[in-house]
Each structure stands twice: as structure tokens, then as C-alpha cells.
Amino acid sequence: MQRIFKILSILYFLLFIASSLVFWARGDPYVRPELYFVLLALISTIVFAQIMIVNKNYAQKILIFFQIFIIALSFTFTQQALYETVLGRDPWAHWTLVEIIARTGQIPNFQDILNPYVTMPNFHILTATSMIVCEFSYKWAQYFTIAIPTLIILMLTALLLANKVFENQKIGYLACLFVAISCNVLDMVGKSIIPNSLGVAIAFLMLYLFMKDQFTRDSRWQILVIVMALGLVFLHTIAYTFLLLQSVILLFAFILHDRKHFGKVGMWVITLLALAILQWAYISIFYFEQLVRIIEVMFLHGFYIEGYKAALAVPFEYVLLARLGMVIFFGLGGVGILLTFFEHHRDKYKLALVLIAGAMIGGSISFLMPALAAISHRFWFYGQVLGSFFVSFLMVKLWVSTKSPMLKNVFTLALVFFLSWLMFVASVANNDNPLVSEYTIRTGWFDSEIASAKFILLNSNNIPIASDFDFAFYLRYFKTNMIESNRLLHIPLSTPRTFKEVFQESEGLFILRSKLIEDRQFILGGPWDQNPHVPLGRKINNLIKDFSTFRNLVYNNQNIHIFMAR
């Protein structure tokens, strides 16, 4: 086994070098080749095989952890390096708030920035400090200060918690691997780097601390938990809600199996709830009002499947294919949860983990509920983190089963490869070369798009501006940071939902991102009336001709066409 492990390690690094060369030699500066993701999936499969044969050699375990880390590091770093702008949607608003804090040394008023995070600024203070001390731009400050530590916390906690609950090192390292390559984790540490990214990692770490035997009797651990809870409640509301939920479920497990410590755990739940009420109801009033509103809408509307389907611009099969990796992952995790429950439901920690993971994976269908649709991806994120234990549990049981060992091992390795590849090309994680471009919005801006944004902002003279949503809506954040304003600047926008409406408008500018509209799903309309459209493909040339018929072309850099109403 030692020799096989060494051969696999050599093969891993050869393939990793090959993937790096494929990235550097790419033909399109904004697109990583398909071969790059295939190679990442192959080295993920190699790590899986190493975990299955590793012994108690400490050096080999360190090597495996490092190998897992650089898989995720490679995927996220290369994606960030493709664009000068931030990726995702939420990071644009966080970028502006952090820039203002870094420039002025203080947190702005809500009226100046229109961002409720002024009452929960821990993410922004930490990132601004990194920008000042390390002289990073915001883009790289969020990556190195938030994303990388988040990834490390998630991986280490998965390893420690699996060893604590399952007492099986293979499950621990597999959980570490599946956390690192899960599509929603790659999104939160490689694209949409936001307070929830770090918040979920802290909630996850606190779950491990709650399960430590020393927690109920060692004051040092309890002080650490209080400090972390205070930090989390001023970091992110949803992550803190997850902390409350998992604490209540853990309390339930103690009621069933450990009434001796039930009182102490119950006091901690009350303490955490009191912190939440204090922050949400008296400091960050906005989020308490939002919580009340969400509960009201949940009872009024419940599930609305027809509404979800009606809002899709593509057939549902495209959506399923774009999320197939997550669907398979949650399916495997669900089977693992059931097996764990039937075999170990008398163990309070296994029962608690089963119930917590089940709740988060169950929450993955929240996208069908109008009240929770906007935050359903947060359930996907934590659901994949917690589900990694049970996918790993199932994989280990499959690997060690005695029936048809050769066939079973080949099937397992093939499944891991396929699942890994689906994670890397999933729409939620992959901004540049997703499997289903018809269902994927590109959020990073090309250099030509940045140049056109500067041209517009310097020359528009308050003329109403229209474009696809992911360009027009975020121009205000780009302008605020471009001229280093200490308050969020207003840009007059027009929000047509169709191109026919654009042609009918009698004034204003329309910015046509031809490359995006040709290759990707794009959205017209405003924040509350978004209208998704499928890529136009070769029809883009006809659209440009139609624009030239109804409007005057005032700017053209081959990718961006800016038309003014006649």
C-alpha cells in the first residue's frame, strides 16, 4: 500500500502541473478550458483512492489534507484571476461598503450607503483592515482574508467533527474532500465571497465545539464559544440562525440520550437566543423586520412550484443538469443519513448530526417557497458541508463491502470522478465555462466592459441608462468606487424587460454586451421584475442590426455596443 500511495501522489502532482499548464495556455483569456476541469476531477479521484488506502502515517495524512486544499485553491484562484472585477452579485455592495470604511476609517450611516450591514460590519471591518495593512485591492482582500480562511476552517472542522462523531479517519478525510469540492462551497469561497461564507464556517466550527466533551465543564471552551457567538451575531443573520437551529436540535438529542447535561446545553441555547434578539430587535432592526416578514409570507404562500417553473427561461431539464452534481450529492447524503440513523440513532452526537444535516438538506427545496427563494442557496451551502459526512459514510461502506470488490471499487471511483466533474462545471460555482451556459449568468466583467462602464459614467450626463441587469444595476457600485465617493451614488436607470420595450423608448442609452448576450443567459428588467432570456447565439447579429435601425450607435469596442435613442 505504501508503494501505491507514492505512485498515486506522483500521479497527483503530475496531473496538477498539467492542469496548471492547461490554464496558462488557454486560448480565451476569460475561459478555462474543459480539460482543466477534467484534470481537477481526476486528481480529486486520486485523492479519494489515497484516502481509502492510507494507514496511520501522519505525514501521509498531512499530504492528503494539503492535496485537497490545493484542488479548491486552484479552482477558486484561477477563476478570480480571470476578471478584474468581483464575481457574484452580493459582493458588489460589500465592495462599496468596505472601500468606504477603508478610506474614511469609520462605518458610514445607512442613509449614505443603503446597506443594512452597517449594523453587522464584522466582515467589512476585517476585509478593510486587510486592504490597509496588506495593501490589497478589495477583490484580493476578500479572497485571502475571508475565502481562504473559510475554506481552511470548513476542511479542518469537517475532519475533526468526523473523527469525533464517527471515529473513522477515512470518513474524516473524505468529508474534508467533499467539502472542498462541493459546488456551493466553491461558490462561497471562490465566487460569491460574502459574510455568509465566513459565517457558516464559524457556525460549523461552533457545532464541533458544542460536541466536545470538555465544553460542558471547561470554562475556557465556554468563553471561546461566547466570543465566537458575539462575532457571528454581528457578522451574518442567516449563519447565526443556522447556529440557533443546530443548537436546538443538539438540545433535543441531549433530552433523549443525555439528560445529565441537558440543563447546561439548554442554558447555552437560551444565551444564544438572547444574543440574537438583542442584536436583531434592538441594534439591527431591519433584520428583525425581515424575519417577521419571511414568517408571514411562509404561512401565506407556502410552496409555489408553478410560479418557479413559470419564471424559468429554459426547460426544467436544463436546470436539473446545471445542478446535477448537487442533486446527486444530496441524494447520496440522504441515503447516508438514513443508514446512519438506523444504525446509530442511540448515539446522541450521531443523532444530532443526522437531524441537523437532514434539516439543512431538507431546506434545499426552499427555492420553491416565495418566502425563502432568495436565500435557498444558503441552505445548499451548509447542506453540502453537513452532507459531506454522510456521503463519506456511504462511500466507505460501499468501498469496504465484500461483494464484487473489484467491480465495486471501479464503480465508486467512477462515481467520484463524475461527481467531482459535475461540481466543477456547476452553474453555481463556475462563472466562466459552466456545463449549462443557457442557465448560467456571467457576473465577472471583461476589460472591454470595464472600459465601456468608465466611458458611460464619465460622459452620460445623467441620461437614463439601460442594459442587462447584471451590468446596469451594478454600475452605481462601480461608479462609487471609481471616483472614491463616501456615499453610494445614484445612476438614472431604465429597466425594460424586453428588447421591444427598448426600441419603443424615446430617450436614454442602451449598453449591449454582445458577447454575454450571445453565449449566456441574461436578464432584462429591474430588481423586482427580472425577466431572464436565453442566449441569442448567432441571432445577436440580427439584434445589432435592429438596434441600428431604431437607435444611433455612439460606442463600439467589438464587444460593447452603446446605442442612443434618436
TrEMBL record:
UniProt entry tagged with the keyword Secreted: no
Record's keyword terms, sorted: Membrane, Transmembrane, Transmembrane helix
Protein name as it appears in the record: Uncharacterized protein
Transmembrane segments: 7-24, 36-55, 62-82, 140-162, 171-187, 193-211, 223-256, 268-288, 295-314, 320-339, 351-373, 379-398, 410-429
